[in-house]
Amino acid sequence: MRLIRLYTEESLNVDSSVFLIKNSYHYLSKVLRAKENQTIELFDNSGFSYFGYVKGITNKSYEIFIEKKIFHEKKNSNIEIAFSVCKNPCSDLIVQKLTELGVDSIQPIISKNSIFNQKKIDSEKKLSHWKNISISSSEQSERNYLPNIKKIVSYQDYVENCSHDQKIILDTKSQKMLPSIYDNLANSLSILVGPEGDFTDEEYLYAKQSDFSSASLGDNILRVETAAISAFSYIKIINNSDNNE
User: Fold this and answer.
1) What contacts 174, CB < 8 A, 6 or more positions away?
2) Architecture, CATH, for domain 4-71
3) DSSP letter assigned to residue 118
4) pLDDT, tens digit, for every residue of 15-25?
5) What is the pTM of this model?
6) Nearby residues of 225 by Cβ (< 8 Å), 6 or more positions away
């Protein structure tokens, strides 16, 4: 039997049982069709993985007996992708793929040319939806820490309050390619990705005045999701190369 991996917010302890109900029960019973004695891994965003097996099944709950736990050290980085909210499935895809790749935090923003109006978005509903996507992606990708998905803010609020050590705004007109600045990358880094209609000249100027440096991913005009995923992929490759030296 294959190992099932599942996120839970229930209290977890070795040599004891945890009862999974509601959404977790539905997922185990209807989607995975988990059977008694099937091995299972639970994680709770604490860095620990808990390993056990299905001890019992009722029509409302799964009893999981936990036999051991393993701690996973969190990497020393704080890399954030801030992207202009776009129509689904674009935003969902960004959250899904950035989670799989290992981004630390995701900041949705509303800029001048964003398709959505911040006042018309149910921010709490969106946030809950994206968190569920990140949970599913973390389960699949064997990630032990969930990304911090922040509430939607305006472009101006984000640029004004961004506190990362290094701040980059993607700009196709920039003379610097993102991969070319890897020698100067900080562990605390924010990359700002514009909407399909691009940032306005005023927004680029405001970012520059707020200590954002510009970088490009090339001459081609990319979709929001392509730019966000590509930018973080570059950073991940660079960081992995540095760690292996």
Assistant:
1) 214, 215, 216
2) Beta Barrel (2.40)
3) G
4) 999 999 999 99
5) 0.92
6) 86, 90, 93, 94, 97
Q: How many residues does the chain have?
A: 245
Which amino acid belongs to residue 56?
G
At the topology level of CATH, where does 78-244 sit?
Alpha/beta knot (3.40.1280)
Decide if 42 contacts 22 (C-beta within 8 A).
Answer: no
Which residues are CB-contacts of 43 (< 8 A; sequence separation ≥ 6)?
5, 6, 7, 8, 49, 50, 138, 144
Question: Confidence band (pLDDT; 50, 70, 90) for 203?
Answer: very high
Q: How far is residue 193's CA from residue 103's CA, in Å, rounded to a whole number?
A: 14
Question: What does residue 49 show for φ and ψ, rounded to 5 degrees?
Answer: -105, 135
Q: What is the pLDDT of residues 118-147, one digit of tens each?
A: 566 678 899 999 999 999 999 999 999 999
Q: Where do the structural domains in the chain lie, given as residue ranges?
A: 4-71, 78-244
